[in-house]
Design goal:
Order of helices and strands: HHEEEEEEHEEEEHEEEEHEEEEEEEEE
Strand content: over 45%
Low-confidence stretches: none
Mean pLDDT: 85
Shape: globular
């Protein structure tokens, strides 16, 4: 009497399999319908509305009037705007985008063409620190075959007076390879910025050429903060086994800053001098006066930059060892030793003997844990003289708020 049980079990298993197959078919149909709907006018309006409603913590705002064409290949974007908490920063009446959105599933941003006939750029955006740990270097491949912005109307806040500019270029960055070409100019101001990089380790190629021409009153002089005419150039050639290059920067035709750069088997070296005049009248410029000697050696692996840096002038000497994780935007046990033989470069009416500061940084840039030690045989501030100075402490940085530095000071 118990014999029919296996047949019943087989029927139940068969029904379960049919039900699962039906569910999968229903899900596929729903997904296909969703993909079809996204590329309809109502789907385009839905995407544009969602983009406009995005509210990242940085305060960046992107507006999009409407989408024409196909979101899966060739799109026409109308009334594109970019803003910050203070209002609109840039606008473009129309932008043409040819791309492959499904490439994102293989961790690639793949764009055939981004063409903007005209845009206005009124001022630089003022964004809020998000506090999030975001990589400095992207963790995905980028291919931009054709970038063209034919007319950029720059506002007074950017260039000091209204200026016109254009940009064209292309980029292919993937799997350790980088091929980049960029040409940006301001015809009415006379500015020119060109970059050509061909770095293909598998083919043994590593060629670099960059040139910046910044005339008086031009766009680059204003944006760089130098506010004086300058010419900068970086050149280099070779391969990934041995590469040599040079960087030059001349301001107002004066003695140029010069850095000799070499790279062997992934390890880079930099030697040279930077003129204090290149840094202006800021604190950095005073510390570098009349010039600062630079010696650096390190390597970049798995988006971690590690090595040693030495900066030395008549006023200061700085040594830094350790690493910076560009993928996690964090310090990797970075040790900094700073000695100041000429304290007057830091503060007026100050002098010192044996003023030394040491610091250790670990963790995310904005909230890194730090330890410090400050000592001096003698520190004079005007008529006040302090001997045997020592202070130490530890805490955390708070770039988005007030950083409290603990003092345990003896003298």
């Amino acid at each position: 009497m118990a014999a029919p049980a296996p047949v019943a079990r087989k029927r139940r298993v068969g029904r379960w399999q049919v039900g699962l197959l039906g569910l999968l078919i229903l899900l596929l149909v729903a997904a296909g319908a969703g993909l079809w709907w996204i590329d309809t006018p109502s789907g385009h309006r839905f995407i544009a509305a969602r983009i406009t409603q995005l509210r990242p913590a940085s305060g960046l705002r992107i507006g999009l009037g409407r989408i024409e064409g196909s979101v899966y290949k060739q799109m026409v974007l109308r009334d594109v705007t970019m803003g910050d908490p203070n209002g609109t920063v840039a606008t473009a009446p129309v932008a043409y985008l040819d791309w492959y959105p499904f490439a994102w599933f293989s961790n690639r941003l793949d764009i055939d063409r981004l063409h903007i006939p005209r845009m206005t750029f009124d001022r630089m955006p003022v964004l809020k620190p998000s506090g999030e740990k975001k990589p400095i270097l992207p963790g995905f491949d980028i291919r931009l075959a054709d970038l063209r912005i034919e007319r950029i109307e720059l506002g007074k806040a950017i260039a000091g007076q209204p200026r016109l500019a254009f940009v064209k270029g292309r980029a292919d960055i993937r799997s350790g390879r980088a091929v980049i070409a960029l040409d940006a100019r301001s015809p009415d101001a006379g500015d020119a910025l060109r970059l050509s990089l061909d770095s293909r380790p598998d083919d043994g190629r590593f060629d670099l050429e960059a040139l910046a021409l910044a005339p008086k009153g031009g766009v680059l002089a204003k944006l760089s903060g130098i506010n004086r005419p300058f010419v900068g150039r970086v050149t280099g050639s070779g391969d990934w086994k041995l590469w040599k290059g040079q960087a030059l920067l001349s301001i107002e035709g004066k003695r140029p800053s010069r850095l000799d750069i070499s790279q062997s088997e992934g390890r880079a070296k930099i030697r040279g001098t930077v003129e204090g005049a290149a840094l202006g009248s800021s604190l950095a410029g005073r510390l570098a006066d009349p010039r600062v000697r630079i010696e650096a050696e390190g390597m970049l692996a798995q988006r971690i930059l590690s090595g040693h840096l030495r900066l030395q002038s008549s006023a200061v000497r700085l040594d830094a060892t350790g690493g910076i994780d560009l993928g996690r935007s964090s310090f990797d046990n970075l040790l900094i030793d700073l000695s100041v033989p000429r304290a007057g470069a830091l503060l007026k009416n100050a002098s010192s003997d044996g003023l030394v500061a040491r610091m250790r940084l670990r963790g995310a840039f904005g909230t890194a844990a730090y330890e410090y030690l400050l000592t001096a045989k003698r520190l004079s501030l005007g008529k006040t003289r302090i001997e045997g100075l020592r202070s130490e402490g530890k805490g955390r940085l708070a770039l988005s708020d007030t950083t409290v530095i603990p003092l345990n000071l003896t003298a």
